[in-house]
Specification:
Blueprint lengths: L6 H25 L4 E5 L3 H10 L3 E3 L6 H12 L5 E4 L1 H4 L9 E6 L6 H8 L12 E4 L6 H28 L4 H10 L15
Parallel strand pairs: 1-3, 1-4, 2-3, 4-5
Helix pairs in contact: 1-2
């Protein structure tokens, strides 16, 4: 099977390699010093297998009550339990896990670079005191997906370098903007109220 050939082939490949990928994740965790782990997955079958094989893992998934999802995510961010398993679409943006976690395992891959990089940045962010580990487990037939993620990461690095260069050269605000702001300092605000409007 070649997972690059379509959604059905990719899904079949993920099902066929699930046990091997999960065993690899377990081996990575067993070989490391005790620490907190984020297990990123994409399929419900992956979540169910994680729940069966890693009883210490706390899982977060879409059909849970909102309160359960919130309490589990907040609990992990506070270091209350060592393993969180979830999808990038659920906890890959906006969460701050850097205080207690620096180790990520992607139990599978897909083409969604934005979800991938945002998930990594849940631990690789301001306040992190350790080098962040990112383990990506995939089948040989998914190499094109990994190549695509690598190409997108290289493009991302080029874009970030360009933005940094612009900020270094021009600053965050141009001189014209600074002067405009100076003109507005000390001006009293005027509010006009009509029957159908406030301005």
């Amino acid at each position: 099977l070649n997972a690059a050939n379509g959604v059905q082939a990719a899904s079949a490949e993920k099902r066929e390699t699930l046990e091997d990928r999960l065993n690899m994740a377990l081996q990575i965790m067993a070989d490391a010093d005790p620490r907190h782990w984020l297990l990123w997955h994409h399929l419900e079958a992956e979540r169910e297998a994680i729940e069966k094989q890693i009883p210490d893992a706390v899982t977060v998934y879409g059909s849970q009550a909102l309160e359960d999802r919130e309490s589990r995510i907040i609990g992990f961010s506070h270091g209350e339990f060592p393993i969180l398993a979830t999808k990038p679409e659920i906890a890959g943006s906006g969460c701050n896990f850097q205080r207690h976690c620096f180790s990520n395992i992607f139990v599978g891959v897909d083409y969604k670079f934005q979800d991938f990089i945002q998930s990594i940045h849940r631990t690789y962010r301001f306040g992190q005191h350790y080098p962040v580990d990112v383990h990506i487990i995939y089948a040989e037939s998914e190499q094109e997906i990994v190549n695509s993620l690598q190409r997108k990461w290289e493009q991302h690095d080029i874009l970030v370098a360009k933005m940094q260069s612009i900020v270094r050269k021009y600053g965050l605000a141009s001189e014209a903007m600074k002067n405009d702001l100076k003109r507005k300092i000390g001006v009293d605000r005027v509010v006009k109220v009509g029957n159908l409007f406030t301005a």
